Amino acid sequence: MGVQIVGKDLFMGQRAIQANTEKLRKAGLRPTRQRLALAQLLFARGDRHVTAEGLHEEAVSAGVQVSLATVYNTMHQFTASGLLREVTVDGTRTYFDTNTGDHHHFYCQDDGTLVDIDGDQIEVAGVPVPPHGAKVDRVDVIVRLKRR
Amino acid sequence: MGVQIVGKDLFMGQRAIQANTEKLRKAGLRPTRQRLALAQLLFARGDRHVTAEGLHEEAVSAGVQVSLATVYNTMHQFTASGLLREVTVDGTRTYFDTNTGDHHHFYCQDDGTLVDIDGDQIEVAGVPVPPHGAKVDRVDVIVRLKRR
DNA sequence: ATTTGTGCAAATCGTTTGCATCTGA
DNA sequence: TCAGATGCAAACGATTTGCACAAAT
User: Fold this and answer.
1) Which of B125, B133, B146 is nearest residue A125 as measured by Cβ atoms?
2) What is the H or E stretch that residue A125 is in?
3) Strand segments (E) across chain B
4) Which residue in the set A131, A137, A139 is minimally distant from B141, CB to CB?
5) Strand partners for B108
6) Across A67-71, B8-12, B59-63, B137-141, least confident range
7) Using the CA of A35, which nucleotide's C1' is the nearest one?
8) Measured between beta carbons, which residues in chain A are less than 8 angstroms from residue B121?
9) From CA B42, how far away is CA B62, in angstroms rounded?
10) What's the CA A2/C1' C14 distance, rounded, in angstroms?
11) Cross-chain Cβ contact A106/B131 below 8 Å
12) Radius of gyration of chain B from Cα atoms?
């Protein structure tokens, strides 16, 4: 007991299933097996930065049966529902961030690593008034790092 | 007089050719016909944000014979030489910015437009010390806009 | 039962590369 | 002359899409 079989995937505890089910429901998404499993991988351990490809590999090696296309779809749905946030730093790959709060990023250009910077730490002053008919959606600060 | 034929392209004045030739030489690049033409398109009128695809179209409709592959190569060479700067905002396309000085950007998410924000205007305070062995290469601020 | 999600494989898009051919110094 | 630049077309990798099938309410 305490472990329920989700399809063929037995890595989620009863608690986790309930928590994620509720999280998905609140976001207006049906708690399917794949979404539950992906949510578990994404949200179980703190803040993460993942690519679709990366999450797919993780899922597969955790024994979750899910296609790469579904991972892409799911991550976009999660993003649209506010469960994830897209981070664009590199052009060649899209990162998804499980931290949807106010924060910024270090981006290590040498190895493609992302590290959060708390929103409280950085202050951006002097943002000009947006052009006519537009309003500020978000301000992203990316601190690009290179090897010393 | 005043207009020299560059291959089949007669849109560059003698002055422009000389100016761009020198600019390329200083950057350590041989002033070929294509590079001269692209430099002219890029640098003739103030600060610009261009995609490779966009610049290629411009070149073609200006009567410049150049392939898309060469435009890509050239823009990367210009970037490596400090004549251009790459701006990553969208993931699906790479923008090149003729403004290589200290500045930031408005990004209009609805139509993909970029607008410069002067470096003096914005101040970023509180950037944490970079992780071990890394140093700050650059700080990018992207103000994402949406329609009001 | 009806709506919504999933998987697969093919299509797409921007970008890069290999290589034979030109061209500027 | 001859390193360096160009063009073309093919290769590429990440992402998206169309559609038949499966699962959730």
Assistant:
1) B125
2) strand A123-125
3) 49-50, 85-87, 95-97, 103-108, 113-118, 123-125, 134-147
4) A139
5) B113, B145
6) B8-12
7) C5
8) 126-128
9) 13
10) 48
11) yes
12) 18
Distance CA B35, CA B23 (A): 11
- Rounded Cα–Cα distance for residues B30 and A116 (Å): 43
Nearest to A137 by CA among B109, B139, B35: B109
Q: What is the dihedral of CA B38, B44, B47, B52, to 10 degrees?
A: -20
B89 CA vs D3 C1’ separation (Å): 37
Stretch (H or E) spanning A114: strand A113-118
Question: Do B137 and A123 count as a contact with CB atoms less than 8 A apart?
Answer: no
For A12-45, how does the pLDDT look when each residue is reduced to its tens digit (9 = 90+)? 888 889 999 999 999 999 999 999 999 999 999 8
Contacts of B115 (CB under 8 A, 6+ apart): A131, B105, B106, B108
Cα gap B20→A8, rounded to integer Å:
65
Of the candidates B123, B131, B144, the beta carbon closest to that of A126 is on B123
Query: Which tokens hold the place of B17?
Result: 């050719």
Question: Taking CB atoms and an 8 Å cutoff, what residues of chain A touch B94?
Answer: 91
Beta carbons of B105 and A128 less than 8 angstroms apart: no
User: Which residue reads 């100016």 in tokens?
Assistant: B19
Q: What is the pLDDT of residues A63-111, one digit of tens each?
A: 998 999 999 999 999 999 999 999 999 999 999 999 999 999 999 998 8
Cβ-based contacts (< 7 Å) between A 40-59 and strand D? 51-53
pLDDT band at B5 (very low <50, low <70, confident <90, very high): very low
